[in-house]
Every structure is written in structure tokens, then in C-alpha cells.
Design a protein that fits this description.
The chain has 320 residues and is α/β, with parallel strands linked by helices. The chain has 2 domains: 8-45 and 163-312, Rossmann fold (3-Layer(aba) Sandwich), CATH 3.40.50.1100; 47-153, 3-Layer(aba) Sandwich (Rossmann fold). 38% of the residues lie in helices and 15% in strands. The protein has helices at residues 21-27, 47-61, 77-89, 103-111, 132-149, 161-177, 193-205, 259-273, 279-292; strands spanning 17-19, 32-37, 70-73, 93-98, 115-119, 152-153, 184-188, 210-216, 253-257, 300-305. Strand 4, helix 4 and strand 5 (115-119) form a beta-alpha-beta unit. The radius of gyration is 18 Å and the shape is globular. The chain starts with 16 loop residues before the first strand and ends in a 15-residue tail after the last strand.
Length: 320
Amino acid sequence: MKKVLSGVHEAIGETPMVDLSRIVKAYGVEGKIYAKLEYLNPGFSKKDRIALQIIEEAEKSGRLFPGQTVVELTSGNTGTGLAIVCAVKGYKFIAVMSKGNSPERAKMMRALGAEVVLVDQAPGSPVGQVSGEDLALVEKETERLVKELNAFRADQFNHPGNVHAHEFHTGEEMWEQSEGKIDAYLDFVGTAGTFVGCAKALKAHNPNIRCYVVEPETAAYLAGKEITNPNHKIQGGGYSMDLPFLDRDLVNGYITVSNDEAIRAARDLARLEGIFAGFSSGANVSAALKLLAGEEKGNTIALTINDSGLKYLSTDLYDV
């Protein structure tokens, strides 16, 4: 057990991993799903890891100096992680977020001392369904603030610390906790930092581990499929846009998940496993169940439980 920590940022990482045997049995598939409980980080998501890594790498390189303001585009989870890290380290933080994201996230960031700038969605975009077009509007406002304030931009879509957090930590933890007994890994991609980092770490140990990208059924842009509806419900990813981090050589396959499938898996995860998670975690579990019913039958799949269901109480995710 760790000794008394100097700050809550030191509690980030080293999350437990759970065998989802109950949901596997309920769905009647063969194999194992090992789920890393990232919602047990202080900010209730895996994005705490990249927030800490990006800030500390920027401090070491001199790109971030004492008293400078930190600004970042976020769907809420990276912003929450940055709010925590900046609070502990003494930086002012401004989060720029689409109004389409769940309001719980904005409230949490403000409670943690962040200034939150909410950006209107593109015309016709439903609340709760953030598209790449919506994200482009957030990007424009983020760029304006960074220039106006001479701020440090965490830049999660481009800063290598995003990948490093998962390559040096999350992926290595997965390997150690599973004792190397992983046949496949998957992730619903947002920035692709988690996918790339974990895939790199796992394949370094065993190049035969197969890594899958998960996307919304109606917006499987990375798989090269037709975009039938970019405004899906699975918040935090599936933006139908090119991702600078994504290394196609790491991708062994693509899986799609519908809104209903992600919601059903999230609800079953809560009901059967006692794990209260968000949309993208449901997407990950649904994709893993599909693989165990098909090409990965009888194998072991690793994934992350990305964030807490508490961040979605204003949505229909848990309207049961």
C-alpha cells in the first residue's frame, strides 16, 4: 500500500483489473474479458492519466512555466483530469467544451476550480450527440483563447504525453496484472491515445496480441465505412475525423457498436458486475462480447472501463 501522498495527483493510475465473468456468462459467449477500472481514478476517468503525463512532460521540457494558464479542448474527462492536476500544481485552467456534452462534466470541472467555456453546437446537432463538426467549433474557440492568453495548450489530440501515459503505465499495468495472458485488446477511440499507447505496450511484450479499434455503427470513419449519422450517443469519441496518433500498423481490425448496444452493455455491466460506467465503456464491453462470439471465441480480451456512469445521469443511459 502507498504511503501518505503529497497530493491527489499521486493517486492517479495503478487501477485494478477485473474478470467480467458474470457478463460473459450471461451473454453465453466463450472466453474472458479483463476490464481495467479507470473510473476509479480521482477524476473518475482514464483521462486523469494523460492530464498528469502531459503537464509533467511540459514542466520538464520548459514549455509550461509557473503562473501560466493551461487551456484545453475537452469532452469533459480530460478537462476534469487537468482541473485536478492544475489545482494541485497551482495553474489556472480553462476547459473549452461543446454544449452537447453532459452538464455533469462542466459542473465537476467548475467545482475543481476550472473556468469552463461552453461552445454552441453546429446547427442541427442534437444535445448529447457531439460530432466532428461540433468539435471543430470547440477547436476554433480553444485556439483563440490560447493565443489571447499566451496559454499552454495541453493539446490531447497531438501532445505525445497522451500516448506515453498509456504506453508507459496503463498498458504495462495490464500486462502485469493479467500475467501476460492477453490475446486481444480493444478501445473505443477518441484521440486514439489510449489505443495506441496500450497497443504499443502490449505488442512490445507479445507481437501476436491483436488490437481492435471500436467505432460507432453510424460513424465508422476510421474503418472507411460510410458515415450515416455522425451524431451518435457514445460521448468521448467516434468523431469521424483523422486522428494524428492513430498508427494503422497497430490495428488488427475494426468493430462497430450501435447506440443501443453500448447502452445495453453499460446497463448490464452495472446490473451484473456492479460496475457503474459510461457510454464508451459500454461500447468497449459490447465490442468484446461480439469478438468472443466470433473470431476471438475462447480467448482473453483486455479493455478499459473509461469513466463513471455518474457523469451521465442527465442522459438516458440509465433510464431503466
